[in-house]
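Title: Prediction job returns without error message
Component: structure pipeline
Severity: low
Priority: P3
Assignee: unassigned

Description:
Job completed but the reporter wants confirmation the result is attached to the right record. Sequence as submitted:
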Amino acid sequence: MHKIAPNFSKKLIAWYIQNKRELPWRKTKNPYHIWLSEIILQQTRVAQGLPYFLKFIEAYPQVENLANAREDEVLKLWQGLGYYSRARNLHATAKMVCQEMNGVFPDNYKDLLKLKGVGDYTASAIASIAFNQPEAVVDGNVYRVLSRFFEINTPINTTAGQKEFKQLAQQLIDIDEPGTFNQAIMEFGARYCVPQNPDCNNCIFNDSCKAFQQKNVDHLPVKIKAKPIKKRFFNYLVVLSKNEHTMLQQRTGKGIWQQLYQFPLIETSEEVNLRSLTKHTQFQTFCKNLQIDTISLFNETPIVHKLSHQHLSTRFWIVETLEENENTIPISNVKDYAVPVLIADFVSEFFENY
């Protein structure tokens, strides 16, 4: 067990009150707003997430509005944030709250955990901020602050580490102001006890931070090395008809970008040239019902799109056809579809003059 430092919580809360950022979800106890902000901020920085929060609140002021929206509308509004399963879970949970709970969010940690896309961290955040329940949050910022202050070397991406830090955070939480404490420790980690070059000499905890005293700040928190990055090779077929139509397909099944739209895709085991591409069985099947005029490569140098555990080496092939196909849509309609940011960037550049 770690010896709990006296006044840790009070000192942290005092720092927070003086230094916190003014953010819209900090001005309310509305569980819908707090839940929405927490889902958006999973794997997303505040600066990037804030405009999305404001867009969602404008489009769906109440959870009922979100529940009644079409999934493709929600995905379109989410476009650019990545990790699209969050958006699908967001929509599913809104429906669950409205259909099974009369539009009222659960007011406790245990029941909040039953919501789709809500894990320990999100349930703790909502329970503490919206309902004043003493449930400690543990995210990347909290791991960093606690591992340094107490000089804990247990890897944070292990079951033992997660249990140890959760128990410690639960011991430290201010039971009178749990929501404020949780926001304070996350804010301190995000803005002061930062990953690289924190200003330890002027830190409010420099007289009691064990890692600072032992000159070990840069080595904490400890994390076991992740799996190697997987490399994938994507070839998008951008169909262009004489009538200014193109073709989109919806991604189905599990995996990245589920339910989003994209140009017809051929994934290969390595980078291919035009000859190899046209010999590919999938390409020949795709082209059976198309009267192709020309095929050209839009980008000789592949666009490398980096996801958390995979890098996509991507090329766009422009396939010009002589006639319409029943599966095509007007180029002007492409902007209405929810697409991955990789596709959105290409559309913005290539179709700018259409």
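Comment from assignee: result matches the submitted record. Residues 8-219 form a domain with the Endonuclease III; domain 1 fold (CATH 1.10.340.30).
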